[in-house]
Structure formats: C-alpha cells, structure tokens
C-alpha cells in the first residue's frame, strides 16, 4: 500500500493560482494528501520545465494544464490523474495516450458551466427583448414606447432555439430554458441521437441548427477539428 508521503502531486495551475482555487482551509487539506510540488513556485507563474521534468518519474497526479505529449507521459509511469483547473481541454495533452493508459482526465468545466449558462440566458433575453438597445436609445433621447419600441422584439417562450454543442454548458443551460418551453434543435456530432432526444432536444444537422432558430447558442469548445466551423458563409 502506498504511504501518504510517497504520493507526489504536481501543482501547476497556471493561469490560475492557489488563492483563486482554494477557499478556507482547502489548501491545507489539499497539501495533506501527499507531497505537493509547485505550490510556492506556481505563485510566480508557469512552473519551470526543469521542475516538471524532475517530478514526472514519481508523480501520481497533476493539478493544472501541464504540457503532456506522449513522450512526457512516458516519463510519468505512475501518473493516474490529470485535473484541469482552467475549465477547458486544451490541445497540449495527448488524450489518446491518457485513455490508453487509464489516466483519469478531470475538469472543473461542470462548475464553470453554471454561471456561463446564466449569462447565456441573460444575453438571449437581452436580444429577444432589446434591453441593451432600448437602454442606448434612452440615453440618446431617442427611446420609443409601446408597439414602436417593441417592433423587433420576440418571445423566448415557445421559440425554436438552436444548440451547437451540448456538453457541460448545454446541459447547464437546458434547465434554465425549461420555463420558456422552447423547441430545442441540437447539433452535436459527439452525442448519439438517442441521448439528444433523452435530453429533450431534436438531433439536427449544423445547417438546420442555424437555419430555423431565431436564437442559436454556440456552446461547443474550440478544437483543431472545429476551428472556423461558424464561418461567414454559414452565418449568412
């Protein structure tokens, strides 16, 4: 059985830092999990490559977004978990090799999805009801009232809404949209149609997700594979 003192954890959270990640006594509890390398050094930015390389042979878990290609992973034979604290899956890790070796890749994205989903709903309501536009017109002394002031407004209730991607963020946004009873058109090539229907949406092509809805939420993370997905041609 591995002793607590044998557990080496590399703390490499840049661009975040310990004060941003830990609250109360959480840092003290974290440091009790084993021998943590990088707490002090991370306060000054990215960890030095030499420190990372020296830690790899004994590291059990990495907290952060450390560059980990296949060669570097090979130098970390005991690595069992990679915990991303930025909230994305940057393309600086060989995820295929992690999967092959059974290295758990975890992310705080589900936590970040909650406030981002609320912001997305707020922006949708703003666009539907012309809130920001009305504010600007009032400040300029050109506000209108009644029908004239709502000529371009529309209801989110019962609207057809498009999702491009339905991962953590999409699933956090869905409950917020439920009171409006929208028709959800979801394009996500990573999800089987049966799961999309189970979530309450209709699986559609990218073209249909853009063509029919009045509001489209672009919720997919940027990868090398989908870069430029929403180009001028598709948006027009």
SS field, number of helical segments: 12
- By CATH, the architecture of the largest domain is named 3-Layer(aba) Sandwich
By CATH reckoning, the class of the largest domain would read Alpha Beta
CATH fourth-tier homologous superfamily of the largest domain: NAD(P)-binding Rossmann-like Domain
**Strand content bin:** 15-25%
Task: Give the class from helix and strand content and strand pairing.
Answer: alpha/beta
Shape: elongated
Give the CATH topology of the largest domain: Rossmann fold
The strand order across the widest sheet is 2-1-3-4-5
Low-confidence spans: pLDDT under 50, at least 5 residues? none
Can you offer a commentary on this structure?
The chain is an alpha/beta fold. It folds into two domains: 4-107, 3-Layer(aba) Sandwich (Rossmann fold); 110-235, 3-Layer(aba) Sandwich (Rossmann fold). The chain is 38% helix and 16% strand. It has twelve helices and nine strands. The chain has helices spanning 18-21, 26-31, 49-55, 70-74, 95-101, 109-129, 131-139, 146-149, 168-177, 193-198, 206-211, 232-235; strands at 8-12, 35-37, 59-64, 81-84, 104-107, 160-164, 183-187, 202-203, 215-218. The protein has a five-stranded parallel β-sheet with strand order 2-1-3-4-5, covered by helices on one side. Helix 5 (95-101) links the parallel strand 4 and strand 5. Helix 6 crosses helix 9 (168-177). It is elongated.
């Amino acid at each position: 059985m591995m002793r607590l003192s044998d557990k080496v954890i590399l703390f490499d959270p840049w661009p975040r830092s310990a004060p941003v990640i830990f609250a109360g006594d959480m840092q003290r509890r974290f440091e009790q999990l084993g021998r943590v390398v990088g707490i002090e050094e991370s306060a000054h930015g990215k960890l030095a490559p030499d420190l990372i390389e020296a830690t790899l042979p004994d590291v059990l878990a990495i907290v952060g977004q450390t560059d980990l290609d296949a060669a570097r992973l090979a130098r970390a034979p005991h690595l069992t978990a990679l915990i991303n604290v930025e909230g994305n899956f940057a393309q600086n890790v060989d995820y295929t090799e992690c999967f092959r070796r059974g290295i758990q890749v975890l992310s705080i994205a589900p936590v970040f999805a909650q406030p981002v989903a609320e912001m997305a709903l707020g922006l949708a309501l703003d666009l539907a009801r012309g809130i920001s536009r009305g504010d600007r017109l009032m400040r300029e002394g050109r506000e209108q009232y009644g029908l004239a002031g709502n000529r371009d407004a529309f209801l989110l209730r019962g609207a057809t809404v498009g999702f491009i991607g339905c991962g953590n963020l999409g699933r956090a946004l869905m409950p917020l949209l439920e009171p409006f009873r929208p028709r959800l058109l979801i394009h996500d090539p990573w999800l089987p149609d049966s799961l999309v229907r189970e979530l309450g949406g209709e699986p559609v092509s990218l073209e249909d997700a853009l063509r029919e809805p009045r509001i489209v939420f672009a919720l997919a993370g940027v990868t090398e594979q989908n870069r430029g997905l929403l180009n001028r041609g598709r948006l027009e």
